[in-house]
Amino acid sequence: MSDQKIVSLCKGLPKNLSYNGKDFLSGIGKDEASELVVRFAKIDEDDVANHAYHGGPDRVVCAYPFEHYAHWEKKFGQRLTQSAFGENLTMSNMTEEQVCIGDIYQIGDTILQVSQGRYPCATINKRNNNNLLLKAVVETGYTGYFFRVLQEGTIKPDSAITLLTPHPKQVTVASIHHLYFHNQSLSEETISTMLEIEELSLPWKKKLIEKQQQLAKGTVHAN
């Protein structure tokens, strides 16, 4: 993988947004930042509104591939705003097909590890005033992903991105998404390999165990 670049940095505290005439509190509305000060628990001046479903040490930094913006703008004929998916890092050449669970990156002087793909929710529809977006994100697997923090530090717009340690299992963010949501490559062997990745976040391990149990009962089949 080469030429990974930061396209934008964004952060923001929860605030009231509006959708279909109704206000809702969310941390998805982020603004451009000159730097991200990244701590083990969270990014300074950045937070989520619902801690029951968002945030935590395995989901400190949210990343979204820049390449997907052109896809969505063409598909829906709308111009997307910066950090349209509530991400902190918009990056090029780091798609869900290229990034693996457990990969360790240095970005600026932070060291980050890919912990999970994003489990998208309807807030992205509200953020972009598009009630078809969530379904399309799930279908494509263009979800983005999260990092946990191994070393605190600062990320700037021109910070270099270096893959320090690729995970030996080489299980991509995309492959786990498509197995869970679409039963793609579904098998006991594939699920077992994914569950062997210690670095995969607990919520996603639970999702895979759920799928494993369904497979054992014969209630799901590979596509």
Automatic annotation (TrEMBL):
It comes from the Bacteria. Residues 35-164 form the MOSC domain. GO terms for molecular function: catalytic activity; molybdenum ion binding; pyridoxal phosphate binding. InterPro entries: Benzoxazolinone_Detox_Enz (IPR052353), MoCF_Sase_C (IPR005302), Pyrv_Knase-like_insert_dom_sf (IPR011037). This is Sulfurase. It comes from Brevibacillus parabrevis. The lineage of its organism: Bacteria, Bacillati, Bacillota, Bacilli, Bacillales.
